[in-house]
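Incident log entry.

Two folding requests arrived from the same account within the same minute. Monitoring flagged them as a possible duplicate submission, but the sequences differ. Recording both here for audit purposes.

Request one:
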Amino acid sequence: MDKNEKNYRTALLVMDIQNAITAHIQNPENLLSNINKAVKAAHESGVKVIYVRLGFREGHPEIDSRHPRFGALKESKIMFTESHEGTSFHPYITLEANDIVVVKKRVSAFAGSDLDIILRAHRIEFLILSGISTTGVVLGTLREAADKDYRVTVLTDACADPDPEVHEFLVNKIFPFSGETITTNEWTHNIQL
């Protein structure tokens, strides 16, 4: 498969870059800059850009209050609903007309969303992951995507975690078992036509 064909079978996932989630990252400027660099390169190279965000209906009918991670959201009565400002994408993120937005209901980008249907409709085989947090959406999506036979690459400097040591451990020790790990600069250089 030549580079041009591979780019058209590739999607960049920009995951959970939302106001309430980005607030947990110290100095997110470098992260956001790397994400925007990846998005720009994707648009210029024919790579599909898909934004993934966490979102629930008013009243959180999708959440069982006993859920260990999301139960507190249900009790909040508003967090991550459409009317909550924390659900919006970070202001540094600008979507283009052909970008796709997927709304997920749990940690993995596939959980409760139509992501897999969209990827298959576009004949996507290669996924490029970016987002917050490394221990959450990136890890969950990487594992599920690998199990679904997608070829996965994680942009190590376009992901972040509230705990930088855990981020480093995951990208250096765990992620290479399920996919490739490279920097944004390496990836953008590789996809140029």
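Request two (distinct sequence, not a duplicate):
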Amino acid sequence: MIQKFLLLGLSEELELQPLIFGLFLFMYLITGFGNLLIILAVSSDSHLHTPIYFFFSNLSLVDICFTSTTVLKMLVNIQTQSKVITYEGCITQMYFFTYFGALDIFLLTMMAYDWFVAICHPLHYTVIMNPQFCALLVLVSWILDSLNSLLEPLMVLRLSCTDLEIPHFFCELKQKVQLACSETFLNNMVLYFVTVLLGGCPLAGILYSYSKIVSYIFRMSSAQGKYKAFSTCASHLSVVFLFYCTILGANLSSTATHSSHSSVAASVLYTAFTPMLNPFIYSLRNKNIKRALKRFIGMAVT
């Protein structure tokens, strides 16, 4: 029975470890502080107790958890000069990585639907996007995703493996399947199916929502109305574009080059870099968030 694995990390060169530690610690602290500040600002301002900011605060919470799942273990390993992760720890990390990654996608899809209803059906917005429905959407996503995230780690348990070295800074499912010594056909089929289902279907929903939004905006006669509608959606589109492009880039780079190093480097983008940028993208382009942040910081200082 395998009891532990070795996470080789971003680099095995000792002189680079302090630089990597400092860089990732900085990104993790910015991610945690930025997203936590957004959550506190939204919760403390009654004007932001609306569906879109409810989804946004949930996204900030998920981003904190998503980054913590991978980056914290890497920081501990660098600090203790140990590459070890237990078998149970590897499976647990794989579960939560899948869990929070899928939740990110679900929340981005909910936000796209919210914008679609707000812009294309404004008269029915309060009826459709009522607080009970929004809370139910999020609750069902958390519950269903917890069940779905069990599937892939359980599939890994059936694999046998003699290579204990994982050329990554966290236990990624794809890396585990590639290192397996037993038949991986079923695992690959499940992986592809889940990727299409949880990645492709939400993306199709997002693109459909925004195609309707863009079509509706072009039919608007007011130039000011068009600008307001486009600026309202710009932040969310930026986050969707950044998240999906970094994940797609990570998968395409590893497929094209067959290099674990390129896959690891690309994985940094969506596991650490994107969650760090999300609060800045939303806060810098959203007057309500900036106003709430100023009010909250003012209350905290006084």
